Amino acid sequence: MSVNIWAQMVKSLREDVSSSSEDKLQQILEHLGSAIRETQDKLINLQQMLLDLSTSKGASHDEAEYKHNLEETLHKTQLQLKRLKQQMDTVKAADAVQRAQAAMAERRSQQASMISGLPTAVEVLKRFQD
């Protein structure tokens, strides 16, 4: 009976931790999603500025330098977007691994409680002898 109470306590604690972890995970994913959207908007704006500059006639030295700076900024922003997407994938993968580990631990806990309730081989033999 005490094993069953212990299993219930462990299950309750895991549920509390799981809900807290899910809240934190959701916050992280929302933050990363927001950062990705902002970076994508920035990329669109940079690409539009570069396109506008490319279509203007008679590029002076200052405009050529400005265009070069825009291209560099565009490249850096693309790299930033790539890193943010990798971070999002990493967070999702880490969550999947954590969920799998929690499921395995839960199964082991259930198996242990089932096994502890079974009579030992010695007890079974004694019953047959009696």
From TrEMBL:
Instruction: Give the protein name, as stated in the record.
Output: Uncharacterized protein
Q: Which UniProt keywords apply?
A: Coiled coil
Q: Which residues form a coiled coil?
A: 29-94
